[in-house]
Amino acid sequence: MAIDPYADLAQILGCDVASLGPADVITALHPARRLRGLLDNYEASVANRVNELHEEGRSAPASDVLSRNAHVSDKEARRRGAARQGVGTHHSVR
Predict the structure, then answer these.
(1) pTM of the full predicted structure?
(2) Segment 46-70, tens digit of pLDDT
(3) What is the extent of the structural domain holding 71?
(4) Would you say residue 18 lies in a domain?
């Protein structure tokens, strides 16, 4: 099954959370989970690219770039930078 991030985002933006019933609240979380996965994969790909640039001497390490630009603590940036190594390449979303 293909993920359609545009449909997921439209579902989130158009959702009236206050009107959701008991079964609907579970279903309402699915597009958020899919988008979060997509964003995590994208961030991992960018971190991998930053590390490649760092190895070429053209950038600071991913942990430094993430801590300055992703608004995370140094500790969290180091954790993310280490966790991102070996993560697959991001595929563009149309």
Answers:
(1) 0.70
(2) 889 999 999 999 998 888 888 888 7
(3) 32-85
(4) no
Q: What is the pLDDT of residue 80?
A: 66
pLDDT in tens, 73-92: 777 767 766 655 555 555 55
Into how many domains does the chain fold? Answer: 1
Write down the residue that tokens 């991913």 correspond to. Answer: 62
Joined together, the tokens standing for residue 76 give 């969290």
List of residues 6+ apart from 5 with CB closer than 8 A:
34, 35, 38, 93
- Sign of the Cα torsion 81, 60, 46, 39 reads positive
3-state secondary structure 30-61: HHHHHHHHHHHHHHHHHHHHHHHHHHCCCCCC
R_g (Cα) of the chain, nearest Å: 17
The answer to whether residue 19 is domain-embedded is: no
d(CA 46, CA 30): 25
